[in-house]
Give the backbone structure.
Amino acid sequence: MFAREGYAVMLGAVGLGGLLVWGAVQFGGPWGYILWTLAIFVVLFTFYFFRDPARTPPANSDNLLLAPADGKVILLEEVDDPIFHEGRVRKLSIFLSPLNVHVNRIPATGTIEFVRYIPGDYLVAWHEKASELNERSEIGMVHTSGVKVLFKQIAGAVARRIVYDVKVGDQVRAGDRFGIVKFGSRMDILIPLDFQIHVSVGDKVVGGESILGTFTSQ
């Protein structure tokens, strides 16, 4: 299965691949081999990038905080969130390389209460200021226990397109598909300081399946 957000790009890659093959036939020789190789790479990489594999959330996922994206945990720190949490929170950052699945998933079950899109720069996704300066979406939700969760799709140096399809008032479940960031990017999750995190910096996670933490009744 492929991400619907990538259909136009995949069609463009097929067109470009066709032009490269035409050039390979015209030139022949060493240049022909190079163009053939490039055509195959462009098409295969584009289709590989926009893959959208099925994901099965773990049992009792309504009480879990799940990874919203595939990738590697690169940061766990305390920061201020004056907009949604209105205070100090813990931030967990996941870096997505161009080889990761880039479809994003809802991290918890509850209600969407805050959504905004912010244009910005395109610093490399692991830059310490990327979450503050880069193009991004910010989506705030309240888990069924009452705990607030803010998650951000953050563009990187290569990513130039953020897509999401949630709005204020939506009822969502952990593991639901909600969008995509095209090419290398980052996902930030902001949760209360007393929320127990089950992963560490350096851990690899799978969107919609890896458990980041567990909610307790309020």
Notes: The radius of gyration is 19 Å. The first strand starts at residue 64 and ends at 66. Helices lie at 7-27, 29-49, 130-133.
